[in-house]
Design goal:
The chain is an alpha+beta fold. It is built from four helices and seven strands, in the order βααββββββαα. Helices cover about 20% and strands about 30% of the residues.
Length: about 140
C-alpha cells in the first residue's frame, strides 16, 4: 500500500483484533459482523500540510496472514511512496480525517447511501487531473 499524500509518519501501532474475515463489499455491508473493527489492523498516524493528522488504518482480511509496515515514526514520504504491504494478497485501508480537512464528492455520498461501490479515476470531471492534484497538494481546493 502506498501513501495517498505527502507527509510525515507521526506514529505506528497495532490495534487489538486478530480475525481475518473477508472485506468484500457484502461483508462490509453486513450488520451481523463488523469486519473493520474485528479484523487484524495496524494504524499509521500520518501528518500532512493539507489534511493535518490522518489515521491510516490497514485492515487484514481472509488469506492475508500479515501486515508489513515499512514506514517508521519520523519518516517523511511523498505521495505514492510505499508505506508497507500485505503478505499475500490485498485487503483494505480506512482513513480517518480531522473534521473540516476532507470532503466527500457528492457521487460518493449518493452511492454510499444506496450502499453501492464507487469507481474513481482521480478526475473531478474538468479534464485536468494534474491541476487538481496540484491544488490539493497546495491546499487550494
Amino acid at each position: 500500500f502506498n501513501a495517498p499524500f505527502s507527509g510525515t509518519v507521526e506514529s505506528v501501532g497495532k490495534i487489538i483484533g486478530e480475525d481475518l474475515y473477508s472485506v468484500k463489499p457484502a461483508m462490509i455491508r453486513s450488520y451481523a459482523l463488523d469486519v473493520l473493527t474485528r479484523n487484524k489492523r495496524q494504524c499509521l498516524w500520518l501528518r500532512s500540510q493539507v489534511f493535518g493528522l490522518v489515521a491510516f488504518v490497514v485492515v487484514g482480511a481472509t488469506h492475508v496472514g500479515s501486515i508489513v509496515i515499512n514506514a517508521k515514526k519520523g519518516d517523511t514520504f511523498e505521495k505514492g511512496d510505499e508505506l508497507g504491504h500485505f503478505a499475500y494478497g490485498g485487503s483494505t485501508i480506512v482513513m480517518v480525517f480531522s473534521r473540516g480537512r476532507f470532503y466527500f464528492d457528492t457521487d460518493l455520498i449518493h452511492n454510499s447511501e444506496r450502499r453501492c461501490e464507487t469507481q474513481d479515476d482521480g478526475d473531478d470531471g474538468d479534464g485536468d487531473e494534474d491541476e487538481d492534484e496540484a491544488k490539493a497538494e497546495d491546499g487550494d481546493e
